Amino acid sequence: MLRIALFVAMLLRLSLVSGDDMSLVGTWSSKSNSVFTGPDFYDPVDELLIEPALPGLSYSFTEDGHFEEATYQITPNPQNHSCPVAALIYQHGTYEELKNGTLILTPFEVDGRQLLSEPCSDNGVSTYSRYHQIEKFRSYALSVDSYHGRYKLQLYESDGSAMQPLYLAYRPPLMLPTQTLNPTSASEATAESVSNKVKRSLENRFRTNAVKNPGFDYDFWWWLSVGMMGVGSALYFFC
């Protein structure tokens, strides 16, 4: 009966995470829990990339096929440990999931930005430039991390190698407006309409409807398991 109780508890847990919660939609962040998409990473009004406290990676996905990416990467210099290369990268655009599970992220070409710092060769002046890189992931996997008790997104690069895992941080996703932010004469959006949306987004950055994902309620599942074991023991005793 004890095995039956544990099996029922496991089924109840799986039923909790097998519905709409197991979705790509949301803001996902790497283990450092320091890098997130949205206005605290990139200010498109002043075109500023804001350095997070720690390196990391974040992706956001919407239900209607838009994505946003925030990357803060530090690459050590093996010949001179005091000369690490740091890069901040922002992109957003649209994504497509193919029938074979492949994800293709196509950024808006005019909006991507990169801030590159090479302290031992740039004389203390970082290089700020446009950035545009289509990204292709061979596949992805959604699961519940048994150690952290959080929803996990595992992306696999085009060669099949696994990237660092990402964990659900916000749902709905924490993002800037999903249209061209810095339009040129060839862009579809008008500069005035986009500027107003961006300013509202920045003003409302602390009033977002995105909800921080708390992970699983361990106390609930602990007491549920205890209760199920009690029920199983009672059934065994009386039967």
TrEMBL record:
Family annotation (Pfam families): Rot1 (PF10681)
Residue spans crossing the bilayer: 220-238
Keyword line: Endoplasmic reticulum, Membrane, Signal, Transmembrane, Transmembrane helix
Membrane topology, from the record: Single-pass type I membrane protein
UniProt keyword Transmembrane helix, yes or no: yes
GO biological process, alphabetically ordered: 'de novo' protein folding; budding cell apical bud growth; establishment or maintenance of actin cytoskeleton polarity; fungal-type cell wall biogenesis; protein folding in endoplasmic reticulum; protein N-linked glycosylation; protein O-linked glycosylation via mannose
Major subcellular site: endoplasmic reticulum
Signal peptide interval: 1-19
GO CC annotation: endoplasmic reticulum membrane
GO MF annotation, one: unfolded protein binding
Family that this chain belongs to: Belongs to the ROT1 family.
Protein function: Required for normal levels of the cell wall 1,6-beta-glucan. Involved in a protein folding machinery chaperoning proteins acting in various physiological processes including cell wall synthesis and lysis of autophagic bodies.
Full protein name: Protein ROT1
Organism: Kuraishia capsulata CBS 1993
